[in-house]
From TrEMBL:
Entry protein name: Disease resistance R13L4/SHOC-2-like LRR domain-containing protein
Repeat recorded as keyword: yes
The organism's taxonomic lineage, starting at the top: Bacteria, Pseudomonadati, Bacteroidota, Cytophagia, Cytophagales
SUPFAM superfamilies found in the cross-reference section: L domain-like
Gene3D superfamilies registered for this protein in UniProt: Ribonuclease Inhibitor
Alphabetic keyword roster: Leucine-rich repeat, Plasmid, Repeat, Signal
Species for this entry: Persicobacter psychrovividus
Amino acid sequence: MPPIIGNKILILLLLALCACTAKSPEKIKEEKMIEILNELQQKYGDGYNSIYHLNETGKYYIEFSRVKDDISNWNEILSGIDKNKVRFFDFDNHPEALHDLASLSEYPSLTGLSIGFCNLSHIPEKILAIPQLKELFLDGNPIQEFPMEIIQHLPQLTRLSFDETPIKVIPPEIGQLTHLKDLYLNKLQINSLPAEIGQLANLETLTLRETPIKTLPDELCKLKNLKILELNRSKIEALPENIGAVNLKEINLRETKQLTALPESFADLPLEYLYLDDSGIKKFPKRIGDMPTLRLVYLEGLGLEDKDFPVDILNNPNIERLVLRNNKLTSLPPNIGNLKKLDGLYLRQNAITHLPDEIGQCTKITSLDLQSNSLSSLPMSICNIERLESFYIQYNPLEWLPACIDDIWERSQSRYSYNPNCERR
C-alpha cells in the first residue's frame, strides 16, 4: 500500500475515533451539574443521605430539607446548574427559603414542591403562579382551612399533601381536582370526607392515618383506580359495604381498634398487601379464602384464638408472608401446607403446642419464627424446608428435635438464633 494512502486511512481512523469519543454539549452540561451537586453534597450533606436524586427522566430532586445551614440564598447556592434539569425542590423546615420564591420561575421543568413545616398560614401567590406544578406538599404548616385557591389556580395537581395541618374539613370542591393521583390527609382532625371524593376518578392513593374519621362515604367505591388506602390508627368503625368494587392492592388497617368486622365484599378486593395488625377485627368475610392475589398478610396482635382464626385464608396459594405474632393460637391448621410460595412465617408469642406435618410442604420458607410458644418438639417434615435461613425457636419447652435441625442452624444467617440443648431423633 502506498504511504500516502496509508496515511490518509490513518487520519480517517483518528478522526472517526475522535468523533466517537467527543462529548456532546449535553453530556458536558450534565457532568458539570453533577460536579456542582457533588460539591453541594460535600458542603451541606450529612454524610449519610444525598441532598439530590436523579429520576428516570433525567430530572433532579433536590432536598434542601437535609441541609442544616440557612438557605436564604438557595438560588445562588445552585448557581451554575442546568435549571431545566430540576424537577422537584424540598424546602421542608426552611422557612427562610421562601423569601426567594420568585426565583422558582427560573426553573421551567419544576413540577414538584415541598414546603412543609415552614410556618405558612396560606399558600404564597408565587407558588400558585407556577403553571406546570403537579405536586405540592404542605405538611406541618398552620393552615387552618382547606386553601380554596388551590382549586382555582392549581387544578392540574396530581399529588397533594396536608399531613399534620390543623385542617378540620375537606370541602366538596375537592372533587374538582380531577387530576389527583395521590392525596395525603394524615393526622388531620377531619371527621368525614365529602361525597365528592368519588369524583377523583384518577385517585390511586388515599391516606387518612391517625384521623378521627369513623366512616367513609359510599362514593369512595366509585374510585376504580384507587390502589392504596391507609387508615391505620384512625377511628374508623366500618368500611363501605361495597368496598369490593374498588381495585385496591393494599389496605392498611393497623391499630384501628374500633373496627371489628370486614364487610363480605372485602373478599372481592384484588389485594396483595393486607395489614390488620393490632386492630379490633374478629369477623372476617366468609370468602376470605377466595383472594388469590394476596401476598403479604399481617394479623399480628388481634388476640385471635383458634376459633377466631380465619382458616380459609390459608387457601390463598400466593401468600408469601404470614404474620400471626402475639395472638392466642394453640395450633396451626393443616391447610398451612397450601402455601407453596410462603417465604416467611411468624408465630412468635402464641400458645402453640404443635405444628402440623403439612408445614413441611412449605418448602420455600426462608424465615421461621416460633419463639415464645409451648412447643415440645417439631415435626420431622421440618427437614423438608431446606432453604431456611432465619430460624427462631427460643423460649419453648423443647424436649426433642429432629436431627436435621443441626443442619438448619449451620445454614442460619441470624445471629440471634440459637441451638437448644435437647434430644435429637
